[in-house]
Predict the structure.
Amino acid sequence: MRLNRDFYIRNTILVARDLLGKILVRKEGKKLYKGIIVETEAYINSKDQGAHFSKGLTDRTRIIDEVGGHIYIYNIYGMYQLFNIVTEKKGVHGAVLLRAIEPIEGIEEMYKNRYKMEFNNPPRRKLINMSNGPAKLVMAMNISKNEFYGADLVTDNRIWVEDAPKLSLDQIARSKRINIDYAEIGRDYLLRFYVKDNPYVSK
DNA sequence: CTGATGATGTTCT
DNA sequence: GAACATCATCAGA
């Protein structure tokens, strides 16, 4: 079952936590890719200097004004794109960054997307490296800003999130977010969530 | 295994 | 002109 609007329009931190264990599904023609979401980060209100929208929206971030469930993708470091899910009601700003997934279906195709190489008995190291980071999972699932900026996970037929049993709190760990040391207010917030002991969680 | 470094170009000041 | 929600690669231990 696809997650519906009600899931996404809640408090951003709850959405970030509850996305753990859910299944990100990407359909590309006849190919189907699925991965368990194992790591997320919440970006919250205007006091959170780590959030791109802390000083108001720009052309890059305009979609964050939309109702929860829309996709916010942005370019970073010239060569990468990061995937976020807009949260909260329309007009309330919040987003969740997906930082890692555990591939469970379409693995060989995802491997080709990721490495531009045939899947041929690869070492475990390379399987883990397929999607254990925010830009890596975007490459594995062949998601691009051009095609997916502003798409709606509640209605789109190329991408959505499937429900799965809720994880227990003792399966979930929490920490500071990665690489936002520049944010004097916000860098110490415990807004990164990940599945304990899952090998696909980023290093 | 760890830490350092360079790649690369859009966005914002 | 600087900053950047990252990754691959390489040197050293």
